[in-house]
Amino acid sequence: MVLYLIISVITIIITAIMLYQRWWTSNIPPGPKPRFLLGNIHELKPHWTHSFSEWSQTYGPIISVWFGTQLSVVVSNADLARQVLKDNDHQLCNRERVAKMTQSGTDLVWSDYNPHYVKLRKLCTLELFSLKSIESFRSLREMEARSMVESVYKDVMIDSTDDQTRKPVVVRKYLAAVVLNTISKLMIGKQFSDEEGKEFKEIVHKEHFLSGSGSLLDVIWWLKWVSKWLVSDKDFLAHMDRRTKWFRGAIMVEEDVAVEDHEGFVRKLLVLKEKKELSEETVHGLIWNMFTAGSDTTAVVLEWAMAEMIRYPTVQEKAQQELDAVVGSERLMTESDIPKLPYLQCVVKEALRLHPSTPTMLPHKASETVWLGGYKVPKGTTVYVHVKEIGRDPVNWINPEEFRPERFLLEDTDVKGRDFRVLPFGSGRRVCPAAQLSMNLMALVMGNLLQCFSEIPGLLCVMKTPVEALASPRAATRVIPLNMG
């Protein structure tokens, strides 16, 4: 009797699970056939967004991809992006947190959409990203751009007197430095030392590696909790210890330093921490968000823009002609010149269209079941918006693979979340709050480089390695050398 009861209960449970799975997966978007427990992860390429693109060509602009037992839905056209980020924004604005660095969700980037997130976003917007705040820090950005130009000039001229002996410069080094210095002065009132900056870059590089090197243990639910008992993640623990040490040394200075002795945005956060309005974990997470998200995204797009202008020299020539006509050769371009430089603004927009720093945006998560493109997206599904694919959709763009800034002169296209054909900063409740600041900084840095230097034959442009360019000071520009004495 007892055995019969046990068998009956097990049968009922298994049947219920099978019926639930059949209902849960019915009417979901098409996609590659998953394997039992593995899903589609055995088919993913190292750059898994490439797999998304290929599967979208086969199955359509909305596809289902299984990471182990976790269903993910990927959308790849503007209409579906609108459905995710506008029509169903409220149900899809939470975050899917997989990588261990993101699982607490107490920061701004990885928090679910809740009162805590709204509070952090409002704080960041008022203190850093409002139009008033952006304007108040304008001189700081212009000073950093000027310093960058001086550094490039010094390095290209130091051991050479002509273009034949001039050594190429690694573009990334200068772009990363100007962005990081700008953010550090906003956040802590000073720039990092060379050693602190080098350590920061190494930590961020390691963090990206750890976040992108997930295994079966990360995506298969029954192995995830087993791994906690069987596996000791020494790499992760060592990384977090290294990150904490750098953070305390470079940003928080000393534990017993008074709040009044801190500067920048950090001071505001520490005041809120003392008032018990923010936890220490939230303060650390928010500061780390600002440094990593801001420095990486802006520098990456700038490097791609410079690389594209090497491939398309006529674009560089047009931008420099505009700078010569509007700014002249007696002074460096400033942010107040940007509204009068429409072609330069188009170069920035085109770089953002072709090379968004996060090709699929950060993952959203369905807080309830919704319908997208006529398909069911069950509660708990991870949703990706493939913005890189959308920005290259031939339905919306003529010759989409070509770097052609002129396309934005023909039509005033918003790139900050209102036009769903180009979404480098996302849209809706999770749109990047720093979009305007980022665009101003990109235009300023790019304009200063174009105003003062031009490329000459002998360029290496392979994006698997840093872009190297033979930079030559422009004869028409008399603003350099600046303060080289």
UniProtKB/TrEMBL annotation:
Heme binds at residue 432. Gene3D superfamilies: Cytochrome P450. It is a single-pass membrane protein. One of its GO terms (molecular function) is heme binding. The chain crosses the membrane at residues 5-24. Its cofactor is heme. Its main location: membrane. The keyword Electron transport does not apply. Pfam families: p450. It is found in: Membrane. One of its GO terms (cellular component) is membrane. Keywords: Heme, Iron, Membrane, Metal-binding, Monooxygenase, Oxidoreductase, Transmembrane, Transmembrane helix. Belongs to the cytochrome P450 family. PANTHER family: CYTOCHROME P450 98A9. This is Cytochrome P450. It comes from Brassica carinata. The lineage of its organism: Eukaryota, Viridiplantae, Streptophyta, Embryophyta, Tracheophyta.
